[in-house]
Amino acid sequence: MYKVALNFEDGVTRFITTLPMETVADAAYRSGINIPLDCRDGACGTCKCHCESGSYEMDGYIEDALSDQEAGRGFVLTCQMIPESDCVVTVPASSEVCIRSQQADIHAKLTEINRLSESTLSFTVAGDQVRAMHFLPGQYVNVQVPATDQWRAYSFSSMFNRADESVSFLIRLVPEGLMSTYMTEKAREGDNITLRGPFGSFYLRDIRRAVLMLAGGTGLAPFLAMLEKIQQGSSAHPIHLIYGVTHDADLVYLDKLESFASVIDNFTFSVCVASENSSWPQKGYVTNYIEPGHLRDGDVDIYLCGPPPMVEAVNSYMQEKGIQPASFHYEKFAASK
């Protein structure tokens, strides 16, 4: 049995005790603490933390969840980490987010489906239980594919709309994908939709310095919710979003970004398309459009949401430039069938 100190980003420290061969995530859950996680199998990377001291055993995870480079720097997946001594672990979330609560299914009605492009659609759900759901901009829920036992994860693309008690999400359409097929061929307004959550440590923190947002494809969704939240207040610091997609047909919600830029002081954005066949003026990847002024020699908070190759490319870019940002929050996602 070993003692583990969990240091949260709001300065709170909680102590847990692990049983023999028990993972840190399981011991935390037993103690009433939910370290953000989704898969429990070392596959998603959601429970990634940093071990400041102590020894541990950790295997059974995949490279997409934790790279060898990250493991060498002391990053751990708490769903696979079994302490072999007392440890100190830094959790990249606030203690309030990690207080364990009973996760109840949320039953809602599908109120709107919008085909935004050849590859992307949005859907909106509403209802009394949606109104009672509390989430932070950037978090996600698991959504059950109707008439199946399968669930898919989607980030909120809006804050709660009090006028019609609704929230919205973005979906990348995947050929023969379960949710894609349902939404494009079977879904009707008024259908019952079940959500579970919210989950995730990828959410907007207090803005205390410049912010750089990097979105890949439907990874734009959490940033739309973040910008909506920022619009409700204000920011004295510059916020820049770089939105990258693969093909012209993947571009969505440029009008929303323009609208945010017109009402949020200090907010700017740029858009790029990777395909060489694109007619968009800015071609290439998001890293091609990161400027020194966005990074401010590391005095910047970076938020990144995109597919695993994009996350790794940005990590490599930062290392090549020798930039260590004040904070770096990211979420990897991969399209699921």
UniProtKB/TrEMBL annotation:
PROSITE patterns: 2FE2S_FER_1, 2FE2S_FER_2, FAD_FR
Domain of life from the UniProt record: Bacteria
Pfam families linked: FAD_binding_6, Fer2, NAD_binding_1
Obligatory cofactor(s): [2Fe-2S] cluster
Domain FAD-binding FR-type: residue ranges: 103-205
2Fe-2S ferredoxin-type domain span: 2-95
Any one GO molecular-function label of the UniProt entry: oxidoreductase activity
Gene3D superfamilies in alphabetical order: 3.10.20.30, Nucleotide-binding domain of ferredoxin-NADP reductase (FNR) module (3.40.50.80), Translation factors (2.40.30.10)
Keyword Secreted on entry: no
Sorted UniProt keywords: Iron, Iron-sulfur, Metal-binding
PANTHER family the record matches: NADH OXIDOREDUCTASE HCR, PROTEIN RFBI
Name recorded for this polypeptide: NADH oxidase
